[in-house]
Every structure is written in C-alpha cells, then in structure tokens.
Write a structure and sequence with these properties.
475 residues; alpha/beta; TIM Barrel; eight-stranded parallel barrel; three-stranded mixed sheet; 40% helix; globular; binds beta-D-galactopyranose; Glyco_hydro_1; hydrolase
Length: 475
C-alpha cells in the first residue's frame, strides 16, 4: 500500500464523480405510471435474492431525491452518474407511450444537478430492462436494436439539451453471462453456450445504432459525448512461466473486455482469438448449428468507432490458471477453460469476489491504452463494499480510495494513460442485485429500517471528499 507522502496528482479538469443505478436506488417500482422491469419480476419470485429482498423501495430516491442531492454536494462532486429506468420513461419499452411523470422526475434531477454545478452522466440501460420487451424476446430478438435506438433518440431529444455525457449500456458482459448463461441476474435464464453471445451481439448493434443516431442527428446541436460502460477485472497468469497459464490469462481478457471493446475500439469485429476459440470448442463438442458468435452485417451502422471515450468499471483482479475440460458440454465455461484464483496476498473484504487490488487497476488502464489506441478513459465505477455490522468508521475503505487514486495518478503521470475522471461506486448504500441490502458499497450509509431513509456519510466518504477538495481545480 502506498504511503501518505505519496500524494496523488490529477490534471486540472479531472472529473470527480459517484455512480448509482435506477433499480438500485429509486424504489417506487409501480408508481406514477412506471411499467414493470425484469428486475421487478425477478425479485418478486422467491429464492432469487438474499432473504427475498427487492428493489421495490430501495433507497426511495424517487421520493427522496433532495437527500441524494445533499450527499452529492457534501462530497463536492463535479459529476454524478445515474441511470434512467427505461420503463419509468417508456412503460412498455417503446415510444408508443411516454410517461410524462417519469420525464418530469428526471428533468428535475438533471435541472437540480446543473443548478448546483454538477454535471450529469446518464446511463440509458443499467440492467433494468422493460418486462414487456422481455416478453417479446428482449435482447435475444434482433429487432431490439431499433427499439433501443428509438428509446435513445427519445432521451437525446428530451434531455440532450442539458445532458452531455451519455452511456448506452452498462456492463454488457455481466448482463449476458449473469442474466442469460448463469441465470443469477434477471431475466434469470440459463441458456448455455449461445444465447449470451447473441444477446451481446444485439447489445452492440443497439449501442452502435444509438451512437450513430446521436452522431448524425444530435451531436452538432448538443455537443455531447457517448460511450458504453465496460467491466473488466485485471487478469494475469498464475504461473507466468507456464505458457498454458499465459494463454488462459489472455483468453480471460479476450472474453471479458475484448468481447465488447475490440469491436468498438479496435477492429469492428470480435477478437480473432475469441472467434477461433469458439469455433474450435464448437467442433470439439460436435456442435454443427449456426455459428455461435454472430457476424456483424455490413448493412448496419458500423460498430467500430461508436464511442467517444472509453468507460471502464473496475473492481478486482484475478490470477488465472489453465483448466482442462473434457469438451463435452457447450457452455461458456468450456469456451474459457480456466480457473480464476484470488492471490493469497490480496485482502478480500466485504463480498467474497472482491479482492482489493488497486494496482490491478493501473495495469488494466495501461493495457487499455496499448490495446485500444490510447483512448480517453473515464473510470465509471470502482468501489469496495462492507458486509455484516455497519462500520461508520470504515477506515479500510477510506484507505482503499486513497490507494486506488494513487494508482490512477501513477497511471496518468508515469504511464501516460489519458484518464479523464473517476466515479466511485456508489454514492449510497443500495440494492446490490442478488445480494440485496446485505452488501453496502455507499460513500453514505442508508438506514433502511428507518422510514425516512437517513443518509450519513461514512469515514470513507470523508476521505473521498478530502481527496476531491485537495485536487479538484474546477472553478
Ligand atoms: C457493477 C454494477 C453495479 C454494482 C457494482 C457492485 O457490476 O454495474 O450496479 O452493483 O457492480 O457490485
């Protein structure tokens, strides 16, 4: 860990933010004309979420926005990243019906942020897909790309006079694998081996259409920037002198980040190694159906170049070891053939999957610089959770923000990575998907047992605020 004398340094216009997502904070799941989303359906079925909790009320941010705004101002954030609930704006997912109360809610949030000199960054889709579109096939169906594009155009038209930073889709890799292969996220499907690739493909097509719509119709007048938020761990070989482990670590990077980053930032198609690998495994298991990894059509807006910056969500690192399988089953595990290991020297705090490895972020940033043509990068999520009895004096989490930002500073100053901003996950403790409210990622504690849902700044929030006030040079 770095010492306090090792002060991080940031460029003059570095962006200081925190992130949230609609389903995780808003509540009001069926109020004021909102249509149901797949997370409503998923959580209302028993046995899916920790203690069968739901986001029905969550932090009640739909009714308590002023409290969230106070938190944002207390931290002195320059930027706030939130997501729109698609079905709050368009209850059945299409522009056939617009919910004016939903529009009014987000107008208010955006206007309040701007009145307080905070810049909004909006995610159009952060896991909470409209149920009525799911019932029509959702991301599996090819026509979703046009439906998403209409939703995006509606948002640019309605809010784009004030919103200048857009993200289309949050973490497509997580949506595809957890939602369609492993089934632990909504919509809870376990269609092994092919669906995740089809869903990912339609997400990329949808994203590219929305970027081109923005570029041709809105950019000139609105002058904003648009991307999609990609998640990635940092992966390195368990034994760097074992070539099998080296290729397994590469495969991990290819299938996690490369899957979405390569088409958008590098070649316009999936990584060559990914296509080759999927074909090889398909053959080995005797699969002779349609190619599992679809091809992009030349008749559609190109996916290459459809991003104005690189948005990265980073949480953790893994050591990777090659793990042979018998090649009998068609699923993503077989495609990957690897084991992910947490190095014993890495502290694991809060949730089990989250080994705290700030230096992994620096390595990943450097990798992105080299692999994806030195893009401007915003770190759109990064954080560290606590579980069990609440610790308001969360010294370790405070330290985590310091250590992480030291690594970001080194990536900028020593590695020459073009990093434009950092968004902590999350502003508030909130509904952490399958883990419900048992896992707390907030810079602010939320007391979910008190009907006023009071928000109180943790020690880690104070640490983050101190780093911001020391380094923020915005006027
Ligand atoms: C991300 C996700 C967030 C948040 C975070 C912490 O994958 O985008 O919504 O839950 O993980 O687990």
């Amino acid at each position: 860990m770095s010492s306090r004398s090792d002060e991080p340094v940031f460029p003059r216009h570095f962006v200081w933010g925190a992130s949230t997502a609609a389903y995780q904070i808003e509540g009001a799941w069926n109020e004021d004309g909102k249509g149901p989303g797949i997370w409503d359906t998923f959580c209302h079925r028993k046995g899916r979420i920790f203690e069968d909790q739901t986001g029905d009320v969550a932090c009640n941010s739909y009714h308590l926005w002023e409290k969230d705004l106070k938190c944002i101002l207390q931290l002195r954030l320059t930027h706030y990243r939130l997501s729109f609930s698609w079905s709050r704006l368009l209850p059945n997912g299409t522009t056939d019906h617009i919910n004016e109360k939903g529009v009014a809610y987000y107008n208010r949030v955006i206007d309040d942020l701007l009145a307080n000199h905070v810049t909004p960054m909006i995610t159009l889709y952060h896991f909470d897909f409209p149920q009525s579109l799911q019932d029509r096939g959702g991301w599996k169906s090819a026509d979703i790309a046009d439906i998403f594009d209409s939703y995006a155009r509606f948002c640019f038209q309605t809010f784009g006079d004030r919103v200048k930073l857009w993200l289309t889709i949050n973490e497509p890799q997580i949506c595809c694998t957890m939602g369609y292969e492993e089934g632990i996220f909504a919509p809870g499907l376990q269609e092994l081996g092919t669906t995740a690739y089809v869903v990912g493909h339609n997400m990329l097509r949808a994203h590219a259409k929305a970027w081109h719509s923005y570029n041709t119709i809105f950019r000139k007048q609105q002058g904003g920037l648009l991307s999609l938020a990609l998640n990635s761990d940092w992966a390195e070989p368990l034994n760097p002198s074992n070539p099998d482990d080296v290729s397994a670590a590469k495969r991990h990077r290819t299938f996690e980040l490369g899957w979405f980053a390569c088409p958008v930032f590098s070649t316009g198609d999936y990584p060559v190694a990914m296509r080759a690998r999927i074909e090889e495994i398909s053959k080995a298991v005797g699969y002779d159906g349609a190619p599992r990894l679809p091809r992009f059509s030349e008749d559609e807006p190109p996916v290459l170049g459809s991003a104005d910056f690189f948005a990265l969500n980073y949480y953790t690192s893994r050591k990777v070891r090659a793990a042979g399988t018998s090649h009998r089953e068609l699923n993503m595990k077989t495609d990957l053939e690897l084991e992910r290991i947490i190095d014993p020297s890495w502290p694991v705090c809060g949730v089990k999957w989250l080994a705290v490895v700030p230096e992994g972020l620096r390595k990943l940033l450097k990798h992105i610089k080299v692999e994806y043509n030195n893009p401007a990068i915003y770190i759109t999520e990064n954080g560290f959770s606590q579980i069990g009895p609440v610790e308001m004096e969360d010294i370790q989490r405070g330290r985590f923000y310091w250590d992480t930002l030291c690594q970001v500073s080194k990536a900028i100053c020593e590695d020459g990575v073009d990093i434009r901003g950092y968004f902590a996950w999350s502003l508030l403790d909130n509904f952490e998907w399958s883990d419900g409210f048992s896992v707390r990622f907030g810079l602010f504690h939320v007391d979910f047992s008190n009907e006023e849902f009071p928000r109180t700044m943790y020690h880690s929030g104070k640490e983050y605020a101190a780093i911001i006030s020391k380094n923020c040079q915005h006027s």
